[in-house]
Amino acid sequence: MNPYSYEPVKPVVETRFGKLRGACYGGVNMFMGVKYADAPRFQLPVEPQPWEGVKNAYVYGPISPQMGEPNPFPFYRGILLLQKEGEDCQNLNIWAPRDPGNGKKPVFVWIHGGGFMAGNAMEEYSFDGFHLAREGDVVFVSINHRLNILGYMNLTEYGEAFAESPNLGLWDLVMALKWIHENIAAFGGDPDNVTICGHSGGGGKVLCLYQMPEAAPYFQRGICLSGATPEGPASEPEDTRVLAREMLAQLGITKDNIDEVYTVSFRRLCRAYRQVASRLWNEGRCVVFEPQKTARFIGFPPFNGFASCSGRKPLIVSTVMAEFAMCPVKAEEKAAMNEADKIAFLRRTFGEKADGLITRFRSSYPEHDLMDIFCTDTVFRRPTVETALEKARCGANNTYVFLAALNTLEDGNPPMWHGADVGYAFRNEDRVFILNDPVYGPQMSDIFSSILLNFARTGDPNNACLPRWEPFTEDEPWTMVIDKVCELKRDIDPETGKSIPFDSRYLDLLSSCVPPFRLPAMFAEEGASAQIEMDK
To answer: Does residue 110 contact residue 40 with C-beta atoms inside 8 Å?
Structure first.
């Protein structure tokens, strides 16, 4: 029998701007598509207009227009949800326990991934906040905001009105946090106990918000899941200016008629991008839209340090073992290999470095299959450690690092891939079917959700599911390794005898065997997506 049921009495709350009517299911009040700002194209967001009467909040709001068709990565095993697109995408969704208690519940704010280019707050079925709100007794909020061209196109050389155009997506998030601070008490949340959490690009946005004084009053701590920037900002300011200049040239827009940028269709902007991006990429320029340094944004940590406004706030930074890496051997072939076959394959692949890799891998991951060497992430783990080190230098002793290494039920049993931890963290493992292991599924759900919930309540992720978790410091760079057996780990440098981050010597050697990471030329190919057509 279904333990949850729809409740016909609809909750009504009063915000600063007017009354909202939501829905209630299973003891959780839900409010969808709540507008937190108005935002003219390429301009800073402003407060929304108030309304009279009661506004229904039953339906998810528009998401930021996407530059390409939905295209989930091949290793994502959940359900991708389609949403209506629109430039009026400044909206949020709220899941709140029906019983507000004392009105001081922790507030958990979810910022979706997709880099700064794509995605939305309910892109994946596992992003639903129902279970975390119901079982964790928190108010869960997810945010939509501007992306790609609309959120990060650098038009600064076209006039003062565009001074913040490279970071408008971040300014949407600041406005959303301000709305939450001023209104969340009406939903039972504590405006002075707000945790911001994001995965992948959403984790990068969390780190960016740490750098913005305007955001600082509106959150108390942050969680960055697989979101530390791999190489620093990929786009130099000149690259972003050149990209904007050449896109506008395709549209016949100059400084003299720049106002046309407000009315040209988004699809024509995408078409202009495709007409120039591939050539610019081949010239060595980056064509990925992302935040840029301005007078009001000091740039990504750790490359620019942590801003004093939030540098001492608690922070979790994490990765999963595989991220984007996948084994080159098919599952059935791997199953037929014995240990000697695997060692021979590794030697053919890595040559004289193979034996050293095997030794270091076995030291770091003694319970893992040797073929998991191919699944080891070399993109996010190292910048995660660098981010943690930079944060630790702020001196608050409240930075925590974890690495999720559990092997999944997917064919070949690869380690956890990019985003697998989110399904567990939100207690939605049943929505990403291969995560719903009958033994380790509930265990992982308890572990990851307890990390998030305890951190959201107190700023300390320690919980009964884990051994004692010490903060990451320069002298003792601890990492909580989450696997069938969870362990707090760090390594010892054999030459100096000093503590070094867990698996760093193994990753140093593995990184020397694989090509350096470079952000892809996303959407750069002319005609790559059939639905991007020049408007007639």
So the answer is: no
The neighbour count for residue 309, using CB atoms within 10 Å, is: 17
Question: Which of 25, 340, 285 has its CA nearest to residue 154?
Answer: 285
Angstrom distances, CA of residue 266 to CA of 43, 84, 222, 294, 523: 15, 15, 33, 25, 15
Rounded CA-CA distance 53/516 in Å is 57
Q: Report the SS3 class of residue 183.
A: helix
Taking the C-alpha atoms of residue 206 and residue 314, their distance in angstroms, rounded to an integer, is: 12
Cis peptide, bond prior to residue 302, ω within 30 of zero: yes
- Nearest Cα neighbor of 242 from 292, 199, 197 is 292
Among 402, 393, 400, 383, residue whose Cα is nearest residue 475: 393
Contact (CB, 8 A) for 248 and 159: no
Residue 374: burial class (beta carbons within 10 Å; 0-12, 13-18, 19+): buried
For 307-322, the DSSP string reads -TTTTTS-EEEEEESS
Total-model pTM = 0.94
SS3 402: strand
Map tokens 């190489």 to a residue: 231
Contact 113, 227 (CB under 8 A): yes
DSSP structure string for 244-277: HHHHHHHTT--STTGGGGGTS-HHHHHHHHHHHH
Distance, in Å, from the CA atom of 342 to the CA atom of 336, rounded to the nearest integer, reads 10
> Letter for the amino acid at 389?
L
Tens-digit pLDDT profile for the chain (536 aa)? 467 888 888 999 999 999 999 999 999 999 999 999 999 999 999 999 999 999 999 999 999 999 987 666 554 555 566 689 999 999 999 999 998 888 899 999 999 999 999 999 998 888 999 999 999 999 999 999 999 999 999 999 999 999 999 999 999 999 999 999 999 999 999 999 999 999 999 999 999 999 999 999 999 999 999 999 866 555 567 899 999 999 999 999 999 999 999 999 999 999 999 999 999 998 988 899 999 988 899 988 888 899 999 999 999 999 999 998 889 999 999 999 999 999 999 999 999 999 999 999 999 999 999 999 999 999 999 999 999 999 999 999 999 999 999 999 888 899 999 999 999 999 998 888 888 888 899 999 999 999 999 999 999 999 999 999 999 999 999 999 999 999 999 999 999 999 999 999 999 999 999 877 655 544 444 433 333 333 33
- 113: number of Cβ within 10 Å: 24
Cβ 228 vs Cβ 187: under 8 Å: no
Tokens of 491: 């390594």
What would the two tokens of residue 332 be? 């059935």
